[in-house]
Amino acid sequence: IKRAISTRPELHRAMLRKEQASALTYLAKQRQWPWPDFAQVSYEIRHPLQPTRFGLALALKIPVFEWAGNRVEVHDAELKLRETEEESLLHAIEYDVRTAYDKVQRLSKRLAALQKTLLPASVTSAMAAERATSESTMDPLKTSVIEGRRIRAKRYYLRILAEYHEARFALEQLAGPGT
User: Fold this and answer.
1) CA of residue 84 relative to chain centroid, distance
2) Element spanning 24, H or E
3) Is 155 strand, coil or helix?
4) CA dist., res. 120 & res. 152, Å (int)
5) Whether the model pTM is above 0.85
6) Does 173 score more than 90 pLDDT?
């Protein structure tokens, strides 16, 4: 799951959108504060010189219309939306990977069971039927029916094996290589 989360580009895009929304929220909050537009210090030089002939000018931009916080609320809502989007993507990725992993495990157990029981039993019964036919104790038609069952068992095994490999491939696509 960690590998899937680190390699999914849509999750990286969602994280970037969340960070952008966070930056816009920060900027909207900063716009509410008064900011100096310019500052000026001056000294008037005339005869007679007096130390009190200086001037100070400071211009502040006071964002009266920003104090209502409408922009902040909009950007906060967008930030919450982006966080929810990221969380839903995380949950979807986690669910997909877990589902694919569970399918691989289930098919692996089924393959092991088939290899232990069905395939050896079908081969054993086919060999016994072949011996019985060669000794003329069994009808060749029954032998062909038993051989058909062995072939169906092998086909079933191969179908489950193909499903297993498809599930492994799907898991590898979801979680990234190396799983």
Assistant:
1) 14
2) helix 9-30
3) helix
4) 13
5) no
6) no
- The answer to whether 145 and 129 have CB atoms below 8 angstroms apart is no
C-alpha torsion sign, points 119, 122, 125, 126 = negative
Q: Which residue has the tokens 């694919």?
A: 100
pLDDT in tens, 53-66: 777 787 878 777 77
pLDDT digits (tens, 9 = 90+) for 64-117: 777 777 888 888 999 999 999 999 999 998 999 899 999 999 999 999 998 898
In whole angstroms, give the CA distance from residue 173 to residue 166.
10
CA 72 to mean position of chain CA atoms: 30
Kindly report the number of other CB atoms within 10 A of residue 151's CB atom. Answer: 12
Per the CB < 8 A criterion, the answer to whether 41 and 69 are in contact is no
> pLDDT tens digit string along 4-27?
777 788 888 999 999 999 999 988
Q: How far apart are CA 13 and CA 9, in angstroms?
A: 6
Element (H, E) at 63: none
For 18-30, b/e burial (b = at least 16 CB within 10 A) is beebbebbeebee
CA distance linking residue 60 with residue 35, whole number of Å:
6
- What is the identity of the amino acid at 61? K
C-alpha span between 33 and 44 (Å, rounded): 33
